[in-house]
Amino acid sequence: MTENFKCKPDFVVKINNLKKGYTLIEILIVIFIFAILMFVTVQSLSLTLKGSKKSENIIKAKQNVDFTISTIERLIRNAGTISCSVDGRTLNYTDEYGQPASFSCNPSGSVNGYIASGSARLTNTEININCSGVVFNCTPASGGVPPSVKIIISGKKQGAPGSEESSVTSSTSVMLRVYD
């Protein structure tokens, strides 16, 4: 029995071995695709982190403004008299014990500032309060309706970069429990 073996020439074997790898262009295309995927991933992660930080800043500002408004509400609800300054930055009142007291929006810069009760600061040092507009607007008693005050406070987290900056505005109206 004779077996027929067909032998490949040596150079054909070497050429077939060269076809087993990847070309430089194929590797560059894969690297380019991975670079695009990484760029998209990093950008989406960055936007997520900025959104999270902005939400955190909104929460801090909202909590601080709400605390300030609730403190003012609680203290002036039983007040005997109220009066607001012409510029709307100061609320003077006599408390339930007849003692004079006040709340004021004190600008620490051109516009931004803080809310204070007498000499005590009500707002956190991290929060800037906008003192450029009317903060307190008093309405005198008339026709059996007790005096009231409208409070509008706008605040934002101090030092937050542009994309993470957030402003919060809260307002309320408080009627005194005193009838004339």
Describe the protein.
With 180 residues, the protein is an alpha+beta fold. It has a domain at 59-175. The chain contains two helices and nine strands; from the N terminus they run H-H-E-E-E-E-E-E-E-E-E. It has helices at 10-18, 24-76, and strands spanning 81-84, 90-94, 100-107, 112-117, 120-121, 127-130, 136-139, 148-157, 167-175. Strands 1, 2, 3, 4, 5, 6, 7, 8 and 9 form a nine-stranded antiparallel sheet that branches. A hairpin with a 5-residue loop joins strand 1 (81-84) and strand 2. The protein is rod-shaped. The model has no long low-confidence stretch (mean pLDDT 84).
Q: Helices, strands, pairings?
A:
Blueprint lengths: L9 H9 L5 H53 L4 E4 L5 E5 L5 E8 L4 E6 L2 E2 L5 E4 L5 E4 L8 E10 L9 E9 L5
Antiparallel strand pairs: 1-2, 2-3, 3-4, 4-5, 4-6, 6-8, 7-8, 8-9
